[in-house]
Every structure is written in structure tokens, then in C-alpha cells.
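Homework-ish question, so no full write-ups if that breaks the rules, but can someone show me the predicted structure for this set?
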Amino acid sequence: MPSVLHVSNLGKTFTLHQQNGVTLPVLSEINFQLEAGECLILRGRSGAGKSTLLRALYGNYLPTDGSIRVRHAGAWLEMVGAPPRSILAARRSTLGYVSQFLRVIPRVSALDVVTEPALARGVDPEKARRRARSLLDNLNIPERLWRLSPSTFSGGERQRVNIARGFMVDWPIFLLDEPTASLDAANRGIVLELIAHAKKRGAAMIGIFHDEAACEAVADRYLEMGAQPAYQKTGETKYACGTNFQ
Amino acid sequence: MTLSAISFSPETAARQFLPVSDPDDSMPILSVRDLTRLYGPEKGCQNVSFDLYPGEVLGIVGESGSGKSTLLAALSGRFAPSGGTVRYCQTSGEWLDIYATSEARRRQLFRTEWGFVEQNPRDGLRMGVSAGANIGERLMAQGARHYGDLRAAGLQWLSHVEIDPARLDDFPRAFSGGMQQRLQIARNLVSSPRLLFMDEPTGGLDVSVQARLLDLLRGLTREFSLSVILVTHDLAVARLLADRLMVMRRSRVVESGLADQILDDPQHPYTQLLVSSILQT
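A: Not a homework solution, just the prediction itself:
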């Protein structure tokens, strides 16, 4: 299978200027390649930099060193140092990010949240809405909620809306940040089925899964991270972080 | 329904997806070099350079007095900088140096291809004429004279910005602040501008009204693939609307880049301070 992602010597060090300039080396010398149809699982303890790596791959965190090359629109795109519009173009058509958190926009309905990535790619709106409805239905979001903004939804419902959004289009590369965390068995099964289906179609995936069974169901390879303890994470977030980049 | 049944087949996917143009092939719509306008040491803006591409939304953020509004005024042709250039790529593909061209040509641009949404809608609307006349003004400046057409455009744009079309003949002063702001947006967009400047468009509005306006702006910028330069001190607004951000401090741009990257992984000490000062809800 063709290679779709090349990561070489990737490093990320956070410098916290507001906290006496303390530096946190989180990633260093990360090297791997990924082929179409392959699923790479990131393993390591909490704080090992798994989510940081996914965010760097998506252009959300700025790498300190190294290179991330993505197969995009028939060519290699170097993500490190790319202008914003190139990163946005890669997100529109190549890189999909699925996380457990949904950034809610007031007044935007669940159906529109899910449909949006397809519309951004120029998919026919009627066709896009059909797929969005099927995804919401499959993920057991009751139809009476589709027209409402997810701001009033429960945590689990928001998570499933976000997963539907993540699987709305056939991304060549999926970044999966614990998509099955805290889902019940039935919904977890559906997410794993969506993943398996995307893999079969040739999508490449990099994922973080804390659930061993989910890992085994999807993994082709593992990347061990944070062999040396880099630092102890003290809080959940350094800044007002979000994981949904809409 | 099975999961496979809801997926796109490769053939239909290839047909349905519009080709994504290679962004590096496209020309900027605005090209700014070393733009400087200072009132005193570190008051105003200095050495600002960037290119804005079609369909991009650029947010300028920073605290009060950092030079955001001065920069916006210099970018939008409102007052001449003391140094540097602002060049606009016209529909014809020819570049126009905004401050080297005639006042007449500049005025013509302001009424047609450019728009400016003021923070205070009273500054951007004509308060002495009806909502319909406010919307029709740019069309008339472009030569539209047919009363029925102007009225039809007014009705269409009122509903576009979610104002009851029955209010067409009402004066703006009878509108709420949020409605006035939406009317100002309609008045600007009616001439199908390519470039829109906005100065704190949600500044004086209640939070519930802000959300509605933001949602509307987000939809309109995408629907008409407008290029936008937006000044705001509200980072939540910047995250929602902007593709890219420039962070200003004491007249200089201290950091710029992809909007979510600047907000989630700020590099400059000042940006880190700005971002970490947001109250989390």
C-alpha cells in the first residue's frame, strides 16, 4: 500500500513564558511512516505525549523540530511551517480528527454540525444530509434531537455527534483521540465498525485507545511513546484548549 | 441500515467532491508590506506585512491600544499610512496600490468591491432613511434605478440577515442593537463585495444576540467566500470566525498563524498571557 504520512525527527517542547519560562520537552525524535489501510496505535502512560503528537499532526500544535509530510492532493505537503491555508486545505480533504470532545457552537443544529465537513468538501447538500442522518441514527442519537444545538445534549450524546461528524467524509488519514472513551458497549461496537469500514476502504489511521479490546480490534502496529519520563502532567489543560477545530 | 450502505462509493465520491484547488496557485486578494502609522512611540501600527487570500478570514487580536483599529483603518483605505503599501488585486487581476490611486477610484471601491462593518451600527447606517433605503444605497451607487428591483433586493437581504421583511420601511432607530448590526451587514453585502473589514462586529451586543450574529457571519463568509479582515479583542469570536490570526502588542504584530494553533499553542509570551487570561466556563 502507498505511504501517506512520513514523520521524521519530530520534536515538541512547550515553553511556558508565564510560568518562569519553564520548558516541557514532550516529544523528541519521533519517527514513523504510515501506509494507506494501516492503523497505528500510540501507546504510553498519561503525559507521554500521545495527544500532543496527534495535535501536531493536525497542525494544532506547532512542532519545535522535525518534519511531518502528508500525502495531500496527489503530492507531499510539509505540514511543519506550511501557511495556514495549506493546513486548512489538508484538513478539508485529507486529515480527519475524531475526538471525544465537541466544541459546541450556539444555534448550530446537531445535523448541521455533522454535515459540515462534507459541505466544506463540496458534497451535494442533500446527499450529505442523507449520510449525516444515517450516521446519527446508527450512533443512536434520537431523531427529535437532530434539529437542536448540541449545547443542551448530555456528554455522551455530544461525543456521539462528534464521532458522526468525524466519520462524515472518507478522510484518507484519520487521527483518533480516544473516540471510544466512555461509550457504552453498543455504541463502542458501532464506532469500531465505522473504523473497520474506513480501514477497508484504504484509510490510514493513528489512534489513542485506552480500551484494550478496542485496541486489539483495530491495531496493525504500535508506537511506544515516552520511554523516559519527560515530565509529570499537573493539570488537564495548559491553556483554554479545545479539541474540535471547526 | 447497515454501515456500508451509508458510505459513499468511490465513484460517486469522485464525482461529488469538487476539486480542491492548490492554494499555492492562487493570487492574494490583498498584499500588505511594512505598513506603518504611528502617533507616538509604540502607538499605532508599524511594519505590518501579510498577504490575504480569497476566502480567508484574518482576525487581528490584541488588547485595547495595541494598534488594531489603526491598522484596520490603514488597511481599509481610511487614512493614509506614513509608510508601506496596501495593494489590492482587482477582479481584472491587476494590482491597485490603494494609496497611490485617485480618491475617486478609492471611493468607488468602498461602495462596490469592499465593505466595512463598524462596531457601532449607527456609524455604518444612515439613520434618517428606511431599512430598505439603507440596503438599496450601494445598488443605486452601482446604477440600479428600478424601484421594484431595489425593493426585492431589500426584502431578500432582510430575510438573509434574519430580520422580518415586514420591517423594510421602518427606520433603523426603531431596531434593536442586534438588528441594526445585522442591517449594517446586509447593507454591506448587497453589492457582493469581495473584501469585508469588520471592527468588533459583536462588541456592544448582549451575549445571546452575539451568538446569533456570529452564526450568521460564519454562514455568510462561507456562502459568499468572502475575504475578511476582522478586528476583535474577543478570542472566542476569533476562534469561531477566523482562519488565521495576527496578535498585536504595542503597535507590532508579535505572532501570526493558524487561528486554532495560536489559541491552543501560543508561542509568544504576550499571546500566552492573553490566552491564559480567558475565563473558562
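Now go work out the reasoning yourself. Hint: Chain B touches chain A through 47 residues (CB under 8 Å).
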